[in-house]
């Protein structure tokens, strides 16, 4: 027996999975007695498992990725046609889809100029980190190597990306980490009482001023970049308060610090109205990284986008053999990614999905706030576009979080109802209590209502 079997033999598929697959983010001990879940098919907003059960996917593939929904034949055809013509060539040379997508992408990002292709969000962030370090050596005598990152933000799963990770449970047992990554406080207004000295008024400006305090403590001549999510994702779906981003921009300009915005989750329409989260706030980043929604999961692609000013630093002395970005990403040369991304952008534009994201995001927000009126366990609702969170607390006055197991029980109850939602988990100690919603940008009013109806029933059963 060579171990081969038909894809329709689902019992053997399950056994092969149990015996050979190491799943992401899951403890495998339960699989000794229970079957792992196999997702067999997806269409639009819905997926089916190996038992034939249908689920409405309210998290776009589990990790905020399938933005235009499942079963997009035109994307699949674009990828097929491109792979038949040219599947791959190292990114030291160009490709037709790479050039076309870069031009289209930059047209959505005024002030940005250059696209560096890679294959994951973690890797895209590492490219920016490496550029910051190389600039420090080229321009500042090796001094401005420190990279600031924010408490509760997440930038990837490699060791360098984890060094910039503000979620301590994700980092636990993986140290020691790379040096010269320095944390700044979070900007979560709902939990400002946990920050020493936080004021009742003008909290956004105060939270940004805490970044300046860290810069002054470390020494402005040692800090090269500040890396932030426009809306904190896995750390609790946190949008910065009014006044925060304007002050952040002022601080970066004042101390000659490069601003790196991690759009791996928020990018390409997730927040509605604008193509990227940072564009809601009028800031001017030096680096923008993106991945998940770039091709909606139809092919692996990530981008590190930067300005012409940053790009010029790596070619200003052509006689110096070390004066270029000496880096490669093998699968940054795969042409399937940009081919899929071109068609993904066309779908978003032609189907007016930014507007749909805005409208359906408003409906999701209103539905969640109605549930907040009904269920005292919801302490806060927040987010932007089709990227929303509902924080669960035992008491609204003290804001004591519900135990993680209870938040997980809500997710499990929704799953039993045929609706897949997310939750912060094993990320921030004692703060894994936010339900997360990121349905595809194609969501309809009925989809949104089905999601929140499932949450309503789950909250009633879990909390009484």
Described by the principal axes of the CA atoms, the overall outline is globular
Tell me the strand percentage band: 15-25%
The number of strands is 18
Domain module count: 2
Please summarize the sheet with the most strands: 7 strands, mixed
Task: State the name of the first-level CATH class of the largest domain.
Answer: Alpha Beta
The percent of residues in helical segments reads: 25-40%
> CATH superfamily name of the largest domain?
Type I PLP-dependent aspartate aminotransferase-like (Major domain)
Distance between the amino and carboxyl termini: 53 Å
- Using the CA coordinates, give the radius of gyration: 22 Å
Please give the CATH architecture of the largest domain: 3-Layer(aba) Sandwich
Helix count?
14
> Which structural class do you get from the secondary structure elements?
alpha/beta
* Overall average residue pLDDT: 96
- What topology, given as strand order, has the largest sheet? 4-12-11-10-7-5-6
Model regions low in confidence, pLDDT < 50 over at least 5 residues: none
CATH topology type of the largest domain:
Aspartate Aminotransferase, domain 2
């Amino acid at each position: 027996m060579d171990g081969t079997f038909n894809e329709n033999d689902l019992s053997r598929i399950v056994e092969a999975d149990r015996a050979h697959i190491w799943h992401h983010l899951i403890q495998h001990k339960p699989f000794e007695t229970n079957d792992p879940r196999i997702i067999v098919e997806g269409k639009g907003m819905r997926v089916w498992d190996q038992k034939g059960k249908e689920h409405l996917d309210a998290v776009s593939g589990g990790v905020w990725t399938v933005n235009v929904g499942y079963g997009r034949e035109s994307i699949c055809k674009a990828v097929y046609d491109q792979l038949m013509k040219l599947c791959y060539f190292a990114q030291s040379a160009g490709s037709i889809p790479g050039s076309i997508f870069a031009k289209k992408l930059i047209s959505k990002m005024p002030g940005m100029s250059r696209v560096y292709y890679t294959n994951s969000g973690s890797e895209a962030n590492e490219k920016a980190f490496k550029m910051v370090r190389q600039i420090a050596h080229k321009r500042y005598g090796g001094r401005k190597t420190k990279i600031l990152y924010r408490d509760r933000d997440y930038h990837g799963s490699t060791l360098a990306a984890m060094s910039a990770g503000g979620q301590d449970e994700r980092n636990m047992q993986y140290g020691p980490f790379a040096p010269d990554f320095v944390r700044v406080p979070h900007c979560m207004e709902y939990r400002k009482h946990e920050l020493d000295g936080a004021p009742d008024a003008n909290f956004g400006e105060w939270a940004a001023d805490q970044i300046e305090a860290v810069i002054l403590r470390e020494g402005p001549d040692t800090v090269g970049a500040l890396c932030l999510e426009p809306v904190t994702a896995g750390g609790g779906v946190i949008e910065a308060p009014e006044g925060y981003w304007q002050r952040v921009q002022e601080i970066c300009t004042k101390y000659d610090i490069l601003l790196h915005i991690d759009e791996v989750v928020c990018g390409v329409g997730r927040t509605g109205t604008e193509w990227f989260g940072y564009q809601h706030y009028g800031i001017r980043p030096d680096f923008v990284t993106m991945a998940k929604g770039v091709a909606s999961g139809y092919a692996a692609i990530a981008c590190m986008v930067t300005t012409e000013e940053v790009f010029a630093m790596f070619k200003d002395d052509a006689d110096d053999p070390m004066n270029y970005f000496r880096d490669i990403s093998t699968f940054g040369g795969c042409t399937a990614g940009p081919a899929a991304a071109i068609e993904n952008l066309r779908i978003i534009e032609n189907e007016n999905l930014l507007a749909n994201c805005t409208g359906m995001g408003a409906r999701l927000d209103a539905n969640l706030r109605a549930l907040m009126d009904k269920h005292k366990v919801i302490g806060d609702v927040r987010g932007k576009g089709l990227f929303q969170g509902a924080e669960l607390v035992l008491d609204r006055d003290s804001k004591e979080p519900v135990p993680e197991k209870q938040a997980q029980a809500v997710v499990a109850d929704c799953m039993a109802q045929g609706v897949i939602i997310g939750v912060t988990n094993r990320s921030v100690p004692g703060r894994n209590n936010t339900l997360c919603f990121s349905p595809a940008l194609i969501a309809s009013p009925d989809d949104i209502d089905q999601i929140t109806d499932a949450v309503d029933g789950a909250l009633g059963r879990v909390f009484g």
